[in-house]
Sequence to fold (234 residues):
Amino acid sequence: MTDYTPLHLDWPGCLNARDLGGLPLTGGGTVRERALVRSESPSYLTDDGVTAAGAYGLSRIIDLRRPEELAEWPSRLADLPGYLHLPVQGADEPEEGPWVHLYQGLLDRHPELFARAVAAVADAPEGPVLVHCAAGKDRTGLVVALALSLVGADVDAIADDYEVTNERLAPRYVERATVPGYAAPAERRVPPTRQVILGALEHLGARHGGVAAYLTAGGVTPGHVRTLQDRLVG
Fold:
């Protein structure tokens, strides 16, 4: 555990929007503010929320959702400059049981898609980059963890930030539980803990030689790494 406190953003309609500025780095220092932002789907934004997100000066919006999700829940930020739809899984892809298996399966099957998403963070125009999926927890958590790991973020801080999502989305989980017919798979009814993202990173080390080797195999270049460091660390 660390003393890192995420910077929550007041974007009405979204519960899980936060700027990762201030997240500590292993060698000292912190991630820059207004460089990397994560959230759940902007489909939740109210009109005031759309205004607030636009006013934050986002230079790129990376939507990780599948095409069918986007069709059902259109992004309210899709008309802003810099919007990119970069899904990190296929339409009919299996979703394995416990959380850690779900994450490992996604990573093993799609290094090129995760590398593409991280590269899109790196080469974005100057300004905050927003990464989001549906809940801002799983696919977003993986892409954010990969990007942060690549620039030397403290792994405990990455895990702390990941677990914050459970607290932020708790009201929405409670609300969904009252919807008739709604039921998450039994193996994923308990929100994932910090050990899940730590397990995913450990899996990359054991099977792929670490985050850097995994992303390089997927297409991230040394130039991407340099620009990502410049963006997130300075």
User: Anything to note?
Assistant: The mean pLDDT is 92. The longest strand covers residues 36-39.
